[in-house]
Amino acid sequence: MDYKPTKRKSAFTIILVIVFLALALTITFVIGFQAGRFAGSSSNQPSGLDSRFSLFESVYNIMNKDFYFGDDSEEYKDKLVYDAINGMVDSQGDIHTDYMTPEEVREFTGSLESNIVGVGIRYRELDGEIFVLEVLRDSPAERAGLQAGDIVTAVDGVTCKENSVEYVAKLVAGERGTDVVLTINRMGKLMDITATRDIVGTTVSSTVKDGIGVLTITSFGDKTAEEMAKHLNYLKQENVTRLIIDLRNNGGGYAQTLDEMCTYFMDNGQIVMIEEDRDGNQIIDKVRKSRKIKYDKIIILVNDNSASCSEVFTLALKENCNAIIVGTTTYGKGLAQLSTVFSDGSALKYTDVIWKSGNGVFINGEGITPDYTVRLHDALYLNYLNLDDGEVYQYDQVSSKVYTAQVMLDFLGYSVDRQDGYFSEATRDAITAFQKNNGLEVNGLLDKRTASAIDSKVVSEWGIHKDKYDTQMHKALELAKQ
């Protein structure tokens, strides 16, 4: 059984929710797809057609044979059936229940692979190019010198703007040990960077800060427990006895992975979660084959994009290991899904149980409230500052885009007298100073190029100097040292 929510989009610190790893074809946890328990192939055909199925068949035949806009292709016939199924599933109002075509199933299962060959970055598309959000630690991209905030404009000489992101991903993906040349724009300066493709562990990283172990887990993928074990061994060798587990923006994954991960923190017999079906029957999920590593203190970092397996894991460690929770309230997904694969390769992922913590806590729709609520700078929660061609804001105008720029400029250390969307003189002065400092045309206007540069600078600052701005991590470290 697996957990993962359908969720809204987010920005900057939440930017890592939409995770494109290694510029490869796999999109890891595109905010919304549930990593379901696959029950295996099944025809699941009704034992006898009643009048309801006869009605469906009649409508299908009309749409197939007589509908003016229809055609005789197999693709059209498949679409009629798939659309009918989607209508039946979607109309029930459960955002976590979803019907997937065979292609969607392949993409979905591929998204749970924890190790891929690539260069190791997280990014988003920006005006047809690749805006680097994060460079993974000890990745080919880091070794090559890529930085958060870089914009990839071409791959092996092929311009990104002239091709789809999917095509660009194919260009970057390749065999382990081969080189790929990325042309990047770093604050207006173009340069070529050569990265050597390698296997990238995509879900776990670790470091030691002031003697405190920091374990970052981005999803509960197929190899995450195995990855985590290696990092825990590394931290053990570093004599770490106090641990921070960063689950921010972790949308979930495989429950089997969750169970395996809990064995490193909990004793045999301790409860991971309790599942309950619609008839009230319960299944108590307990730790078996414990490989517990004892820690003097565990701090867990969460935010509103920590969901599903992340929430189960957080409550399990809170109730059984006295873990302290820091950050903002989690997503609140107390439902679990089962996936049934049909003979044509399509699948239905549907909610079949709810889950509660071992102490009976049900967080659906509410989330987990941290023991210590800590927010990051407001700029890190805003949407990207995207302006259209010709869109310009100047002194004495009012706009939500101006508000976004004011908050971002404040984050970057520029003096603004207000953050309400009114383009004041101080706002103009801040923009002018930013333009001077970043080699832009100095006109005091918020135009597309300036907005893009502010976007890039905020992400770059967060990516390169995260230790400086991460108030949630600061609090976790403070608590860990007490």
Structural summary, described in words:
It is a single chain. With 482 residues, this protein is an alpha+beta fold. Among the domains are: 201-377, 2-enoyl-CoA Hydratase, Chain A, domain 1; 378-466, Muramoyl-pentapeptide Carboxypeptidase, domain 1 (Orthogonal Bundle). It has 13 helices and 24 strands. Strands 4, 5, 18, 19, 22 and 23 form a six-stranded mixed sheet that branches. Strands 7, 8, 9, 10, 11 and 12 form a six-stranded antiparallel sheet that branches. Strand 14 and strand 15 form a beta hairpin. Helix 6 (224-237) packs parallel to helix 7 (255-262) and helix 9 (400-411) runs parallel beside helix 11. The two termini are 37 Å apart.
- Work out the number of β strands: 24
- Beta-strand percentage? 15-25%
In the predicted model, the low-confidence regions spanning at least 5 consecutive residues are 1-36
CATH C-level class of the domain at 201-377: Alpha Beta
Task: Indicate the CATH topology of the domain at 201-377.
Answer: 2-enoyl-CoA Hydratase, Chain A, domain 1
How many H/I helical runs? 13
Radius of gyration: 25 Å
> Span between N and C termini?
37 Å
What would you call the shape?
Answer: globular
Overall average residue pLDDT = 86
**CATH architectural name of the domain at 201-377:** Alpha-Beta Complex
What proportion of the residues is helical, as a percent range?
25-40%
User: What oligomerization state is this entry in?
Assistant: single chain
What class do helices, strands and sheet pairing give?
Answer: alpha+beta
What is the assigned CATH homologous superfamily of the domain at 201-377? 2-enoyl-CoA Hydratase, Chain A, domain 1
Largest sheet, in brief, is: 6 strands, mixed
